Amino acid sequence: MSAPQFDPATYDAQLAEKAERLQALLAPFDAPAPQVFDSPREHYRLRAEFRLWRETGSERRDYAMFEQGDKHTPILIEHFPIASARINELMPRLKAGWQASPALSFKLFQVEFLTTLSGDALITLAYHRPLDAAWQEAAEALASELGASIVGRSRGKRIVIGRDHVEEELQVAGRRFRYRQPEGAFTQPNGEVNQKMLGWAYEALGPREDDLLELYCGNGNFTLPLATRVRKVLATEISKSSVNAALANLADNGIDNVTLVRLSAEELTQALNEVRPFRRLAGIDLKGYDFGSVFVDPPRAGMDPDTCELTRRFERILYISCNPETLAQNIAQLHDTHRVERCALFDQFPYTHHMEAGVLLTRR
């Protein structure tokens, strides 16, 4: 990612501009003014990734970032105020660790941090060489010193020191939910805003006596709180690592009314339309569900036309979007049968043009 133009003094103005932009995008659909959920002004990002830069003739390696399209002019980083306080605390200590150890620094080219609001941390070190016993011994000592897990990656190999995931706790409507967030898998980058987003979705769905279909469920980020609002949930996700994390998260939280199937949204659409059967749905009675609501959190491309058409069947469509432009395109397809009852702006990425939005669509 390119370095954001970090300036807390401009935050309120840039957030107001985002709210105006979202309202303009949704104006053709007579949407109400969005609820706006702001971000902490600094230390809000729970993930960070840095390349390492080594000047010719020097063994010193520094954290570096690059402007998009320029891989030759490094922006050297000593501290990173948009990243969590835990990442900033770890950065100099990790750097001192690799500088003091040839086994850790030799051909190290990238560092990734994954942290949580609850203070857990995992560091991934990526290498252009095989990892050996000397590396593992040094990494174990450093992990103990830092109080963090370390994952070493080289071509075709991964060595885990500690855990290959972090453990998060988020509070929604007075209940604490525990999440395992695996290394290398997608997680929401802004923990405080994610918590607000979960609370908004929980409130927007409301208590229901019917069932929920969830598409693109990931590691169960939304699944856990939303499952407490309905009778049953059928959730789908295509990523195997995310499915495994979601299953663990459901078990850890004692949530037993969710059936999780590893299918894409497009495949589930085919199954519900009885286009073709899927072995992964064997034993699942799709016709036994009384779906009243569908929850979607699609990738930036939004829902494909067939999946969008599928959601038209539901009384309520709860939609979280990381790309309001494709959200507007999907709403345009649904606008003749559904109206925008609620909408929200979630400022996951301060000091950038990116924003996340949520809408509740209800049948006319």
What do you see in this structure?
It comes from Stutzerimonas nosocomialis. Pfam families: tRNA_U5-meth_tr. Its EC number is 2.1.1.35. This is tRNA/tmRNA (uracil-C(5))-methyltransferase. Keywords: Methyltransferase, S-adenosyl-L-methionine, Transferase, tRNA processing. This protein has two domains: about 10-40 and about 190-364, 3-Layer(aba) Sandwich (Rossmann fold), CATH 3.40.50.150; about 45-165, OB fold (Dihydrolipoamide Acetyltransferase, E2P), CATH 2.40.50.1070. It is built from ten helices and 17 strands. It is of the alpha/beta class and about 375 residues long. The model has no long low-confidence stretch (mean pLDDT about 95). The longest helix has 16 residues, at about 10-25. The strands form three sheets. It has an eight-stranded mixed sheet with strand order 1-16-17-15-14-11-12-13, sandwiched between helices. The chain has a seven-stranded mixed sheet with strand order 4-3-2-5-6-7-8, with helices on one face. A hairpin with an 8-residue loop joins β2 and β3.
